[in-house]
Amino acid sequence: MLLGVNIDHVATVRNARGGCEPDPVPAVPLAIKGGADGITVHLREDRRHIQDRDLKEIRKRVKDVELNLEMAATDEMTGIALKIKPDMVTLVPEKRQELTTEGGLNFKTSGKKIKKAVDLLQGRGIPVSLFINPSIADIEASKKIGARMVEIHTGLYSNARGGKQAKELSRVKKAVKKAFEMGLLVNAGHGLNYTNVGKIASIKGIRGLYIGHSIISRAVFVGIEKAVNEMKKLIKESE
Ligand code: PXP
After folding, report:
1. Which pLDDT value is given to residue 97?
2. Domains and CATH numbers, the chain
3. Which candidate in 64, 80, 97, 238 could, as Cys together with 201 as Cys, close a disulfide (CB 3.0–4.6 Å)?
């Protein structure tokens, strides 16, 4: 199971002061040294963390692992992706007011925009993953739209406790199984941390986990390389 490390929050700390420290670019080789199989950045429309310059510099440095660009399905972002050529794109819904990506894509309100971005990007050789809620209908919609991959939103699982968490885990498992049966590659992510990752990592068939906030938070105390390495070990032990 691959571990994609989202380094956005290095840039969040930098942007808090409007200067240039800490630079997310040197976080890339450290995360890779720690065992990251991929680097993820989310270029948000309001540029609240990752900036266009970061993306360009990171693209130059990510060669042997996968560069995953998270973005909204807009013409501006599709244009940037076609120029930068990440190894894959994950389409996410985006709201200006949200603290983080709150839910999966909404095919009812944004189906046309999503399909346009998928067709353009995949037509130019960039595989697209759709960030979706653990719902059978959304997996069917992803397949219909022609995406190669989905990323199942684990946020509700991550935030739930006790019996509720077991229920959310079961929803994620069912969604992974359905996506797998439909021939989609299946990823998972959001809200995963050192205590809740094990049950998700033990689900058979998941291609990769995409984790950011918990790793960068831990990195404040132990450094990025060690923080990534600890997460990688937990995933391996649970597989
Ligand atoms: N996957 C997607 C699609 C996301 O939008 C995010 C947050 O940027 C993550 C994974 C990582 O979430 P977290 O920072 O909670 O680990």
Report:
1. 66
2. 2-238 (3.20.20.70)
3. 238
